[in-house]
Design brief:
Thrombin, subunit H; 1 helix; four-stranded antiparallel beta sheet; alpha+beta; 167 residues; elongated; single chain
Length: 167
């Protein structure tokens, strides 16, 4: 009797599994694969996902279209401003979500953006760069800080000064 119950239970489980598998197949017939060539696909953020292919990074959109070729050592960012930090050969630049290079990777560091500006370092000196990749303050300072309202506190050779961008 135990054997009959066991076989009946096994049959019911197999039947239920086959039905579930069959309905999954039907449901997925409306699904198309949009991207399968990458080693890793990151989480989408603001419509862009960073991808990895053979150790290099790029980006795709939600349609699976490659918007940035996987040729970067590292890509970081793509916040609501659509700009990311693009790293190559130990240097960093800026790239937008369409793949346009806004600033070539010639900087040792680019900080976080505040008021549309960030402190960047080139040749161990600090300057200011805009979200569009435009150098606002040449890298000639020892220390720079972007303060409230976009005022820039600059230090050079022990002297401190305040800078403000004029339109």
């Amino acid at each position: 009797m135990k054997n009959i119950l066991f076989v009946a239970g096994l049959f019911c489980a197999s039947f239920a599994f086959a039905q579930a598998e069959s309905s999954d197949t039907k449901a997925s017939s409306n699904i198309k694969q949009i991207s399968s060539i990458y080693d890793k696909i990151g989480k989408f953020d603001h419509g862009i996902a960073i991808v990895v292919l053979k150790g290099k990074m790029g980006a795709i959109n939600t349609e699976g279209k490659e918007v940035i070729k996987p040729e970067w050592d590292k890509l970081v960012g793509f916040g609501k401003d659509g700009v990311a930090y693009a790293h190559r050969d130990g240097m960093v630049g800026l790239i937008d979500s369409k793949g346009t290079i806004l600033a070539e990777p010639v900087y040792q560091r680019i900080g976080h953006f505040k008021y549309g500006k960030a402190v960047m370092v080139r040749s161990k000196r600090q300057g200011i760069i805009s979200l569009q990749g435009k150098v606002i303050v040449e890298p000639v300072y020892d220390d720079l800080k972007i303060e409230e309202g976009g005022v820039i506190r600059a230090k050079k050779d022990g002297q401190e000064t305040l800078l403000k961008e004029t339109n």
